Amino acid sequence: MSTNTSLYSRLSRRETHAPRSVLAITLAVLLILVAAWIGTEIVLSLLALPALLVAPADMFSSALGVLEQPAQYVGIAGVVVAIIGLVLLIAGIAPGRRARHTLSSTRTATVADNAVIASALARHAAHAGNVSPDNVTVSVSHRRADVHLTPASGLPVDAAAITAAVNQQLEQYELTPRVTAKVRVAENGKVGA
Question: Which segments cross the bilayer (predicted)?
Fold first, then answer.
């Protein structure tokens, strides 16, 4: 039983988290291209042929002479390199999340897309508010469900009943990570809804 549980948790994590393959492949291709260019420049220099862009001796001397350049240019270049490094570090460490949640189940790994959860919550909110499903908009993010309901003109809507219905559905789903709901009822009704 514990083997299945660990398998289900691995499958759920795999389905709810995005891989970093595209970023890793892009960086690898860029590094390969730079290494190939530098290697080509070195071979051309050894063969006494003209450089494609910059001769290796010029690259080395300009890297050593960077302190002789104006401070504002060196500072700007340093800030740009630091920002690129910070973005790559955050992208590598932060978990990539897909718009999905896992539903509690002991017998299987159950993953639902946020759009499916939003659709179900919209249906229950419309039923609880006694309005047309077209008048309910729901968006589900990682930890929050925003329910926006527009009542028919002249018909009162019980916001507490809608909130209770939405919260009851969320409790039944037992989503991981846990989602909290915020229900908003529009002040102005819609004619003929």
Answer: 21-53, 73-94
Residue 40 domain boundaries: 19-93
Whether 8 is covered by a domain: the verdict is no
Q: What's the rounded Cα separation, in Å, for the pair 2 and 4?
A: 5
Spell out the SS3 assignment of 127-181: HHHCCCHHHEEEEECCCEEEEEECCECCCCCCHHHHHHHHHHHHHHHCEECCCEE
- pTM higher than the cut 0.85: no
> What confidence tens digit (pLDDT) does each residue in 139-178 have?
998 889 999 998 887 778 888 899 999 999 988 888 878 8
pLDDT in tens, 17-50: 667 778 888 889 999 999 999 999 899 989 988 9
Whether 146 is covered by a domain: the verdict is yes
Residue 168 exposure: Cα atoms within 13 Å on the Cβ side? 9
Domain end (from 74, 93, 112): 93
